[in-house]
Amino acid sequence: MHISKSKKIDEQLGIMMAKEYQPFNLVENKEFKKFVSLLNPSYSLPSRKTIIYNILPQLLENTREKVKRSLDNASYIAMSTDGWTSVNNESYVAVTVHFIDTELCVLKSHLLGCYYFELSHTAINLSTFLNNCFEEWSIVNKVKIAISDNASNITAAISSNKNWKHIPCLAHSINLIAQCGLEEIKEIHKKVKKIVEHFKRSSQAAAKLKNTQIQMNYPVLKLKQDVITRWNSTYDMFNRCLETKNPLVSTLAMIGNTEILTASDFNLMDYYCKLFKPFKEVTIELSSEKGVSISKVIVLTNALLSHIKTMRIEKNLPLDIYSMILKMENKAENRFAGMEDNSTFAEATLIDPRFKTKGFSSETYYIRTYQNVVGKISSIIQRKRQSINQEENIVTDNEQITMSTEKKETFEIWKEFDSQV
Fold first, then answer.
1. Burial class of residue 401 (count of CB atoms within 10 Å of its CB; 0-12, 13-18, 19+)
2. 197-228, pLDDT tens digit by residue?
3. pLDDT tens digits for 375-413?
4. R_g of the chain computed on alpha carbons
5. β 77-85/91-101 pair status
6. Among residues 105, 249, 97, which one has the least CA distance to residue 164?
7. Measured between alpha carbons, how far is 292 from 108 in angstroms, rounded to an integer?
8. d(Cα 153, Cα 265) in Å, to the nearest integer?
């Protein structure tokens, strides 16, 4: 085999191990060796040490250079960051950058690194860490927007840099709103969680549920467990219980050694899922990796707040659900306050062709944002004209830019959005 072909295979092997989390000793596995030999008898697998000390370091360096070249095509960069502690009690901070490639005119995102962070998570330490990270990648002057959760330390770290504009993670704000109401349904939450745990621990109980689902012509679905750090996992747990309600009730009756779910319990879960379904949908909308979501923020937050208020005035609401809604409404109003006063959100909404005037709660917000955008565009045009010495085409101070009063097109959008327009 030609050496260039062999190197390409080695490289792809390294990529597979890195991306698919394959162990290095895969190349020492007898069956894997036979498999590779059948594919190409003339190819010799590299040793584990060759992969660790040669192939992977070279791949890392090549990838770094590729990312650096990509970052050269960015004029402005938005960064997002988050930190967590591993199961081994080690602290890590991840930094991701997002930008429009000025040559290809496409949205790109790069994870610059998931860094081991042994220092105290103070605002000063985090600010220094982020600045050092951007200096390493030569993008200090390009970073303009910083997205993070609402923790005071990272918020202060970002605010300490005057070149960065902080945007709180909307998904995190939604999580806080959702979590604040769970206390009102803690009894049913605890009860369902305990039942699901029983089916997770007992293979016999799980088998009985499966057989009952088959006998009753229901799809075979496993129960889902709640995770304390994920509000939507509570929604998933309740929703799955509702999906398999009859087989679950029958199985619980057959088992006889655990709590049962009453009609009142299912009624509460039904109201909970009705309340939280839009929250889950919004979270999915915001989690897109291939599209820009900032223009949706005002529309979606207004829709969520409207949904909460609509639910609150429903007749015959269970008291626990009503109390939950009141807490969530208060939290949402505080969290979503000033969204349309945020120029970044407002301008992004205006220039999104799906929303335009319809993306705002009032004509006042639209007019103000429109004038700001027109003013900024006018300034950009003037600077461009000046730079190429086209003095005759410079917009004079006496020229006025008037806002069109033409009726804007109405766009199809989500039901909550439609109900507002």
1. exposed
2. 999 999 999 999 999 999 999 999 999 998 87
3. 999 998 888 888 765 555 444 444 444 444 444 444 333
4. 28
5. antiparallel
6. 97
7. 10
8. 40
